[in-house]
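Supplementary Methods S3. Input chains for the assembly prediction are listed below.
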Amino acid sequence: MSVTTETTYSSASQAMPIGTPRHHIIIFAVLLGLLLIAPFLLYPVFIMKILCFALFASALNLLLGFGGLLSFGHAAFFGSASYVTAHAAKVWGLTPEVSILLGTGSAAILGLLIGALAIRRQGIYFAMVTLAFAQMVFFFALQAPFTGGEDGIQAVPRGNLFGVLSLADDRTLYFVVLAIVFGGLLAIYRIIHSPFGQVLKAIRDNEPRSISLGYKVNRYKLAVFVMSAALAGLAGSTKSLVFQLASLTDVYWTMSGEVVLMTLLGGMGTIFGPFVGAAVIVTMQNYFASFGAWVTILQGTIFVISVLLFREGIVGVLSKWIKKPL
Amino acid sequence: MFELLGIPPQALFGQLLLGLINGSFYALLSLGLAVIFGLLNIINFSHGAQYMMGAFVAWMGLTYLGIPYWGALIVVPLVVGATGVVIERLMISRLYHLDHLYGLLLTFGLALIIQGLFRNGFGVSGLPYSIPSQLSGGTNLGFMFLPNYRAWVVVASLLVCFGTWFAIERTRLGAYLRAATENPTLVGAFGINVPRMITLTYGFGVALAAFAGVLAAPIYSVNPNMGADLIIVVFAVVVIGGMGSILGAILTGFGLGIVEGLTKVFYPEASSVAIFVIMAIVLLVKPAGLFGRTA
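Predicted structure tokens for the full assembly:
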């Protein structure tokens, strides 16, 4: 056992040197620097939307790009967390950090339930099962008494962080959101590069071999599913405070499709791809919002082009150019 | 008036009939998915959009060209099936050497494009399509009133499902098809044009979806979103049945339609999630699906 584990790690470390590569630290630092000055140049709510979706897409990428599991139902976690946070902040009057924790926690529990069932099937079936369960969550949100049906939960108070700091101002909220999202992204980076992440990649690349090496494959799959669900929930919770709204759009299948698109466009299995994908798609939605159904057509077209010609995604192509993993 | 389990028989049989109608659509659509999956190994996410296209092309045929319902029943599947052939040749055929998930992503994108185009052209309010005069009205069966058109939907769906099953399981062409599912290289070595067969199979699966769309046009209003939610339920049906068997897809489709109808009678709040709950139970008890081979 120990011998085989060692060989696995040594082959992995050939692909990626031990320790954090310097160019990753530089990119994270430059990204943080840009995001710190961004709210003084651009509309803060717009960047917060990008940040929330960047975290959402990175959470999906953790599952899809590193676990090899395509979930077509991640809106269930994003949306349910968004509802729970909105309800906790508005009806129970809880502070934002507690509301976000509750939303994230409920997404994790939902992830445990759906994940435990979904990992019983592989490949295409896994995608269909997650999509079907997400639709079930959508019907629940449509009918449940506390979700407000078609109206959703509107005018959610942003409240005071830890009961002291008012988040009503967009820029104040921005730095809190930046801290949450950046923390989430670093956590995902850490998970990917931990021994757990290495095993995950081994399972993605060769499941039968991982089983024969003695790994409890299903436990790893379930664990990464729950982590991904919780992080998607964190993104949904934060989003509901930013827009002060939780609505059916957050749990609908189109949302699941959008986040898959962001990940695919940015680059599946890359570290910075989902961020780039989210930024491109959110910007596009912003500028084409007045064209109605054309946004859907454009998104569909990007899907088709990405799959046919551009499977590595934007960051995947860049990474090939500079011959370093991004 | 007698009652069954505290439910008036009209309500019970009415919901059973509705369930049977829904089941007809589940069966037709999951059959198409199973046929496509069998040979192409992809899940056709645009199946719902192609079903919607079927209904729209029937409406356009009637409105712009005066093609009556009975003509549409034959012409529309051919037209929409032909678009399927083009899509397979131009796009899907480029993905066979890749992970099957790319087929899913591609057809999802296509579904978005098709839906968006129809929403742009026709809005979302829905267009009426009248029931053909031969099938208007209904028959009083004594215990319930049976609208003729709905009876026709069930009969037509059963006929097409049985015809497809017969063609695949009992004819020479079907034997080639099943052989190609098992081992395309060997079948090609016997001089059968497998790529063409794959293309036509996709076209046929899409034509089945379009046929279901024409059947649905007079019952449901013709609108761009009619296929989107339906296809997710059909995915659940496919997971429950497993895609290994043609007959399995048909039986599961009808069976689940009836179960859903019964839930509407006894516990209406749960009717929209009944199929998903069954899917959860099947995943726990028999992960490969009721008729599926273990993966």
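Residues 9-110+143-285 of chain B form a domain with the ABC transporter involved in vitamin B12 uptake, BtuC fold (CATH 1.10.3470). Chain B is about 70% helix and 0% strand.
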